[in-house]
Amino acid sequence: MTINFDKQNGLVPVVVQDSVTQKVLMLGYMNQEAYEKTVQEKVVTFFSRSKNRLWTKGETSGHFLHVNEIKIDCDQDTILIQATPDGPTCHTGADTCFNEENKQKGLFLNQLQSIIRQRKGTSPEESYTAKLFARGINKIAQKVGEEAVEIVIEAKDDNIDLFKNEAADLLFHFLVLLEAKNVDLDDVVDVLQQRHVLRSKIA
């Protein structure tokens, strides 16, 4: 899709978003030259209105924004860049220019799900996960059951570290089971959200 740089005197606003956490990191502006440089080098470069020149984010701090995906809005006058930051984005040292912490650990589950999916179909000698898939759905389901029993046992004790480790084991094997059944984690989240909406309406 072509970007309309003429619409706003040669500049378009650019929203930069962390590819993993989905947090908005900053807002900047690009002219066509900055955009082409960004596309070519895969590092975000803006047009600095105060310096009146191209400005690569991180050129002095080393905290570059590495481009993963570029999207253009429906009016062709705004750019969304999903990127991986090398460090804090804001010049103040904050994670984002909106003074937010750039962490959402829950999203790691999606990353872990992707890794599990990559292991599916690979040689059992390559990883524990591949070995689980090779054993078949019955063994995977059995393993989930075993981990569920273990977390129940740990829940009755006072060792919180052991409980967290058993919870992690259960969650991991649950994700493997989902993949074995070709069910995405988001599908399960959708069911929970639908239940929430339904119960909210009833309440």
TrEMBL record:
Signal sequence residues: none
EC number of the protein: 3.5.4.19, 3.6.1.31
Catalytic activity from the UniProt record: 1-(5-phospho-beta-D-ribosyl)-5'-AMP + H2O = 1-(5-phospho-beta-D-ribosyl)-5-[(5-phospho-beta-D-ribosylamino)methylideneamino]imidazole-4-carboxamide; 1-(5-phospho-beta-D-ribosyl)-ATP + H2O = 1-(5-phospho-beta-D-ribosyl)-5'-AMP + diphosphate + H(+)
Top EC category: hydrolase
Claim: Zinc is one of the keywords in the record: no
UniProt pathway annotation: Amino-acid biosynthesis; L-histidine biosynthesis; L-histidine from 5-phospho-alpha-D-ribose 1-diphosphate: step 3/9; Amino-acid biosynthesis; L-histidine biosynthesis; L-histidine from 5-phospho-alpha-D-ribose 1-diphosphate: step 2/9
Positions of region (Phosphoribosyl-AMP cyclohydrolase): 1-108
Keyword Amino-acid biosynthesis annotated: yes
Keywords for this protein: Amino-acid biosynthesis, ATP-binding, Cytoplasm, Histidine biosynthesis, Hydrolase, Multifunctional enzyme, Nucleotide-binding
Top-level taxonomic group: Bacteria
Any one GO molecular function term: phosphoribosyl-AMP cyclohydrolase activity
Entry's localization field: Cytoplasm
Cited InterPro entries: His_synth_HisIE (IPR023019), HisE (IPR008179), PRib-ATP_PPHydrolase-like (IPR021130), PRib_AMP_CycHydrolase_dom (IPR002496), PRib_AMP_CycHydrolase_sf (IPR038019)
Record family assignment: In the C-terminal section; belongs to the PRA-PH family. In the N-terminal section; belongs to the PRA-CH family.
Protein name: Histidine biosynthesis bifunctional protein HisIE
